[in-house]
Amino acid sequence: MTGLCEGGFTVSAADDGMEAAVKACETPPGAVLASALLPVLDGIRLCRFLKTHPSTRGVPVVLTIPDGNRNLRFRSELAGADMVVPYSHPVGALAAGLKKLASDGKSTAEGRPSDGVQVLHSLSEGLLNRLERLETVMGLAEGLGDSATVAELFRRIAVSVLVGLGFERVWGGSRQRDEPRFQMRIAMGAGISRKPIELRHRESSAALAADTGRQVFSSSLHASSGILEWSGTLDYLDTPITAGGEVLGLIRADRGVTGRPVSPWSAEGVKMLADLAGGSLLSLLSREQAAMCREETGELLEALRNAALTVNRDKTIVDAMGSTEALLGREPHQLVGEPFVSVVTLRGEDQRDLIASVLSASRPPPSRSLRITPREGSWR
């Protein structure tokens, strides 16, 4: 890395093959340098993806391999690497090769197999590609449950569909119960629409997927082109994301405007991703909805010049919202973690007893909320 920077290169690093693929698609670089043994998505599959994706197919790819590993060299060249070098290759020579590739785009790969051997290995490589792509999907899908937001979940799904299953464009969206459209959460690929997908036409692919909870090929439908047309094509795959018998999201993927058909195993891979994502999407949507309700409640309290404090049984404030600065002299986030009694000074034994009973749950009153109003500099 240091040697390349000293050689005049601007370097953008990635921790694994998946991150490298995303960065390359978002901002195509002058060249890609990767180890054939990258984690998550190895360098050979990364190279194969970059060489087939519309936005990166012209980007030179250099793969590094362990010294003397003829099998990895052969597979790297079959994947389309423009240059394959051992780990011990001098940095200066590597930098010179990268500059040449970036400037003229010509491959410097040597020792490619003969035509007869190429055909034989291409046939076996086709079967291997399917297995590797399935392994890629499974590897990427393992992280779906770690997604912290709905946006992150759909980003992981999109990367899995593009990198692992060979699609050229993917759109992902979610909806609340009975909402007549899927709202866009992710859109990746050339010329793809970022608009919501409406469900008002019952014969549309998305509406059928939402009604039945099943995967739908748009090419199998007999609706008019005006209803089926999307982002310049009539041929795409709609896969619903379900949880608890309810359709919560949609993955739409296609081969771009090339017209290449979607293979059954690619469609099965998308369905597998959708099945794995269902539970996570339900949880994240619920959390997102709760956060939205909390924000609206906070705005309402602000408008009414009221505040709300949430206190645990240890009498510690765990949440605060509303006009706390005007009423208590501190912002909501400054109150979290503070003892309730240090923030609010109470008068009267009855009030203290009532609060104590709510916090201890030993004598729960009909309501577990308590209205306390400021009077004459103290709280009652």
Question: How would you summarize the topology of this molecule?
Answer:
Layout: H1 2-6, H2 17-26, E1 32-35, H3 43-52, E2 61-65, H4 70-78, E3 83-86, H5 91-104, H6 115-141, H7 150-165, E4 169-174, E5 181-188, E6 197-198, H8 205-212, E7 216-217, H9 225-228, E8 237-243, E9 246-254, H10 264-303, E10 307-311, E11 317-322, H11 324-328, H12 332-335, H13 340-343, H14 349-360, E12 374-375, E13 378-379
Helix pairs in contact: 2-3, 6-7, 6-10, 7-10
Which features would summarize this protein structure in a list?
3 domains, six-stranded antiparallel β-sheet, 380 residues, Beta-Lactamase, disordered C terminus, Rossmann fold, 16% strand, 13 strands
**Helix percent band:** 40-55%
**Tally of individual domains:** 3
> Which outline best applies?
globular
Look at the structure and name the CATH superfamily of the largest domain.
GAF domain
β content, as a range?
15-25%
Contiguous helical run count: 14
List segments where confidence is low: pLDDT < 50 over at least 5 consecutive residues: 106-124, 362-370, 373-380
The tally of beta strands, per DSSP, is: 13
Radius of gyration: 28 Å
CATH topology of the largest domain: Beta-Lactamase
How are the strands ordered across the major sheet?
A: 6-5-4-9-8-7
Mean pLDDT: 79
Between the first and last Cα atoms, what is the distance in angstroms?
A: 65 Å
